[in-house]
Amino acid sequence: MTNPPMIALQDAIKKYDDGPPALAGVTLSVASGECVAILGHSGSGKSTLLNLIAGLDKPSSGTVTVDGTRVDQLGEAGSAKYRRASIGMIFQFFNLLDDLTVLDNVMVPAQLAGMGKGEAKRRAIELLGSLGIDRHAKAYPQRLSGGQRQRVAVARALMNKPALLLADEPTGALDSSSAEDVRRLLLDLNSEGQTILLVTHDVQLAASTARRTIELVDGAVKRDVVNDGSGAGLAARTPLTRPAGAVG
Ligand SMILES: Nc1ncnc2c1ncn2[C@@H]1O[C@H](COP(=O)(O)OP(=O)(O)OP(=O)(O)O)[C@@H](O)[C@H]1O
Ligand SMILES: [Mg+2]
């Protein structure tokens, strides 16, 4: 028997108002320990997909299951609890709280989850140390470079040991050297077993960070391929999804 997937979407559709659907029936599964890049042009539905997986939004129809939880069926409180327990998120613009120190920013998720302050502080300092920014623990985010801020955001995302790390354009606001730091950080985390979904429009970033790339076009999965690591992964296509209607 194979393990159940970490993420499973079955025919997930998301419609807003009258326009074309943001997601037009997405079926995919991601195994524990995978690092998958979600690639696609602006408006192709990448953030919508992450939001459904994070329980921040509900599909209009279809199912979203993460780590055995039917995320699409959670109420507001259940969904917040699910996010605290299972999901770490990082974003293009860091979303740090400017009036909290680096250390306090990183401690927030643990405190929301009810972890004691002493334990939260120990874990936050340990994480900041492993990301090489512990000497900035008492600084406020505004004093940090973009790359340093993104490291803080990664530490915060990892605070509750999430089953799943969701990253939405995490290098989009960074210079190339900081972007490379964050890329390596994601690679290291994945090599330690962290499951990661990385949203990007950068083909090279996708190919050099993730083993697998899913490309969205107009809210649908256009391609689902294994990267060969050379950056030419999208050329050498190896479909991973079974065609609709396949049995077994
Ligand atoms: N809250 C909303 N209300 C109405 N339409 C929305 C909403 N959120 C997203 N959309 C629409 O859904 C589609 C997909 O948006 P989404 O944000 O998922 O794209 P994206 O691939 O993340 O784009 P980008 O690369 O620009 O971040 C777009 O057409 C967008 O306008
Ligand atoms: Mg987006």
TrEMBL record:
Superkingdom of origin: Bacteria
Entry-linked InterPro entries: AAA+_ATPase (IPR003593), ABC_transporter-like_ATP-bd (IPR003439), ABC_transporter-like_CS (IPR017871), ABC_transpr_LolD-like (IPR015854), MacB-like_ATP-bd (IPR017911), P-loop_NTPase (IPR027417)
SMART domains cross-referenced by the UniProt entry: AAA
Domain ABC transporter intervals: 7-243
Pfam families: ABC_tran (PF00005)
Any one of the GO CC terms: membrane protein complex
MF-aspect GO terms: ATP binding; ATP hydrolysis activity; transmembrane transporter activity
PROSITE patterns (alphabetical): ABC_TRANSPORTER_1 (PS00211), ABC_TRANSPORTER_2 (PS50893)
SUPFAM superfamilies per record: P-loop containing nucleoside triphosphate hydrolases (SSF52540)
Keywords linked to the UniProt accession: ATP-binding, Nucleotide-binding, Transport
PANTHER family: IMPORT ATP-BINDING PROTEIN
Protein name in the entry: ABC transporter
